[in-house]
């Protein structure tokens, strides 16, 4: 990679630059920590005349997503960003966006959901809307999140997909961190991402109705088609990643990324920025002779069931780190992995680690403890304590 | 990889210092990362900021627990905040103080370097914003990041007279600590 193309900047600004080069026609947003710097930067680009876009300052997240739905239905490229309670306020409109098959791209700066009030990172917000029909990607670094923002438009606008996409970046841990990134130029983005020109759109010259009633005789077919579009996305996403890799020179290799899994007895699985810390941990443990590997789930919706099973095959035990919990059940990634395993040919032992809720730091020492616990499960041959809260304070 | 922790009070530019340090390290051809301690920031309250610099890509996302270097922007934090926590025994701590080292109550085997950064800032900038003086001193005391890169970046961030003056502060602080 050419070094001169890299610059040190805040994660929020990095993603704003990438979105700017995708030339969205309409941006509608409402500020919320830790997302605010993204749309603040975009509004500055518009005010300075660097981005020709309609920037709508709305009065709530509900309105932000509603404005995106209206704008997207007219065949324009749209963008918004939010966090936490803001995402929940959008909930009703999220389902409309996906049901209307509108390829809106939204960055979620992941933040815990209160009460208690908490502005820090976990994945309770985006995992809470995982059934809303949106594609979900989770980024490890600021480079990845800005690349995903560009890739997401191409995925979402694909004729075989045509679904909205959510790019998840860990609040503060990525949004507020300065690190070097390479931002594709407007020309490079234009070469990768064609103009959005959908076949069906609201147009006074050619009137059509969007969002009419789906009677019982038709509704199921709509849902089947959305599900089919998600299945198509499993094929489209790797193709988009491949083309992006070829054009931009950074490798994106699939719905999941395997790290030293080939001969691993124990595999850790997670998503988001903690993957970086886990990679360092795996390297340290490998140096000590431990046979450990890591799987990063880059795409959570559609869920990469087959890819995960193939990658896990051969491991004796799997430890899944979730930065969320469905209270009364399990972490989201863990639950869905178990779903996938049930009808597969493999039966690894599994354990779920709930960590990093509400911004609790996950140092390497905690990552090592999760490995030790998973290895212990492998050696004993059974799981004693399936759902384990990591670094919980002693009573 | 070297890890750096900066202690200061809200309004003293600790986060900006970490960012400038990362930018300057990048300018020198290193990989770099800077981030705040993600607190709710208030003017005057103790704040922390972190930086990492490395020859290779930085993947670690946790806070800094065992820094090689610690920068203390405000000596009134000594005794209130555990500034020496986790510092490597062969590390270095740069403290902004007008007092002599022997008068400082810091329990560490790490080398302590002192300078009156506030006075330097007041003399040249006319304001008690000491972060750039401490960055100049960091450069001189550790040799991890060049003062030229520091100056280039501060001038880029604060164009015009403010940047020039801050670069002068950096240069002077760098010389004071023997850079």
What would you say this structure looks like, in words?
Chain B: This is pyruvate synthase. The complex is a heterodimer of chains A (395) and B (179). Chain A is an alpha/beta fold and 395 residues long. Chain A has helices at residues 11-21, 36-47, 61-73, 84-89, 91-99, 124-128, 142-156, 186-192, 216-248, 274-287, 305-312, 332-342, 364-380; strands at residues 6-10, 26-29, 54-57, 78-82, 105-110, 135-138, 165-170, 178-182, 256-259, 266-270, 292-297, 299-301, 317-322, 349-354, 387-389. Chain A has 2 domains: 3-248, Rossmann fold (3-Layer(aba) Sandwich); 256-389, Rossmann fold (3-Layer(aba) Sandwich), CATH 3.40.50. In chain A, strands 3-2-4-5-7-6-12 form a 7-stranded mixed β-sheet, with helices on both faces. Chain A has a 6-stranded mixed β-sheet with strand order 9-11-10-13-14-15, with helices on both faces. In chain A, strand 10 (266-270), helix 10 (274-287) and strand 11 (292-297) form a beta-alpha-beta unit. In chain A, helix 1 packs parallel to helix 7 (142-156), helix 10 packs across helix 13 (364-380) and helix 11 (305-312) crosses helix 12 (332-342). Chain A is globular. Chain B has a single domain (2-176), classed as Pyruvate-ferredoxin Oxidoreductase, domain 3, CATH 3.40.920. The longest helix of chain B has 16 residues, at 161-176. The two termini of chain B are 22 Å apart. The chains are: A alpha/beta (395), B alpha/beta (179).
């Amino acid at each position: 990679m050419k070094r001169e193309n890299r610059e040190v900047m805040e994660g929020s600004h990095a993603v704003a630059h990438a979105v700017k080069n995708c030339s969205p026609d309409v941006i509608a947003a409402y500020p919320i920590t830790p997302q605010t710097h993204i749309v603040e930067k975009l509004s500055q680009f518009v005010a300075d005349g660097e981005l020709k876009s309609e920037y709508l300052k709305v009065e709530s997240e509900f309105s932000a997503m509603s404005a995106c739905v209206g704008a997207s239905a007219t065949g324009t490229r749209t963008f918004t960003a939010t966090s936490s309670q803001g995402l929940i306020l959008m909930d009703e409109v999220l389902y409309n966006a996906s049901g209307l098959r509108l390829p809106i791209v939204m960055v979620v700066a992941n933040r815990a959901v209160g009460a208690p009030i908490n502005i820090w990172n976990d994945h309770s917000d985006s995992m809470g809307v995982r059934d809303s029909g949106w594609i979900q990607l989770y980024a490890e670094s600021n480079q990845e999140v800005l690349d995903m923002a560009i890739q997401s438009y191409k995925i979402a606008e694909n004729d075989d997909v045509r679904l909205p996409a959510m790019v998840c970046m860990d609040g503060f841990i990525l949004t507020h961190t300065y690190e070097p990134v390479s931002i594709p130029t407007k020309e490079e983005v234009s070469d990768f991402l064609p103009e959005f020109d959908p076949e069906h759109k609201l147009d006074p010259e050619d009137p059509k109705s969007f969002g009419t009633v789906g009677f019982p005789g038709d509704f199921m077919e709509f849902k089947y088609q959305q599900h089919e579009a998600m299945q198509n996305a499993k094929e489209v996403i790797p193709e988009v990643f491949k083309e992006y890799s070829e054009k931009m020179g950074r490798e994106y290799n699939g719905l999941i990324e395997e790290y030293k899994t080939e001969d691993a007895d124990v595999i850790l699985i997670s998503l988001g920025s903690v993957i970086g810390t886990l990679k360092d941990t795996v390297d340290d443990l490998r140096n000590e002779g431990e046979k450990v590997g890591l799987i990063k789930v880059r795409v959570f919706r559609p869920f990469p069931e087959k890819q995960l099973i193939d990658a896990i095959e051969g491991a004796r035990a799997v430890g899944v780190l979730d930065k969320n919990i469905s209270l009364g059940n399990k972490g989201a990634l863990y639950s869905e992995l178990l779903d996938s395993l049930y009808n597969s040919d493999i039966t690894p032992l599994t354990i779920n680690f709930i960590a990093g809720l509400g911004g609790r730091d996950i140092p390497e020492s905690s990552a090592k403890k999760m490995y030790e616990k998973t290895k212990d499960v492998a050696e004993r041959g059974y799981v004693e304590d399936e759902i384990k809260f990591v670094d919980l304070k002693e009573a | 990889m070297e890890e750096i922790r900066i202690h200061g009070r809200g309004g003293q530019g600790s986060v900006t210092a970490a960012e400038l340090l990362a930018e300057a390290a990048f300018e020198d051809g290193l990989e770099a990362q800077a981030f705040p301690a993600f607190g709710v920031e208030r003017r005057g309250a103790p704040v922390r900021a972190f930086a990492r610099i490395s020859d290779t890509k930085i993947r670690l996302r946790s806070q800094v627990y065992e820094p090689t270097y610690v920068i203390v922007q405000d000596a009134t934090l000594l005794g209130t905040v555990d500034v020496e926590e986790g510092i490597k025994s062969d590390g270095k701590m740069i403290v902004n103080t007008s007092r002599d080292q022997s008068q400082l109550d810091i329990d560490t085997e790490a080398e302590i370097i002192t300078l009156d950064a506030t006075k330097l800032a007041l003399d040249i900038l006319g304001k008690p914003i000491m972060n750039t003086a401490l960055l100049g001193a960091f450069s001189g005391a550790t040799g991890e990041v060049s003062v030229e890169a520091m100056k280039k970046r501060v001038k880029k961030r604060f164009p015009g007279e403010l940047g020039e003056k801050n670069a002068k502060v950096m240069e002077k602080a760098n010389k004071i600590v023997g850079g």
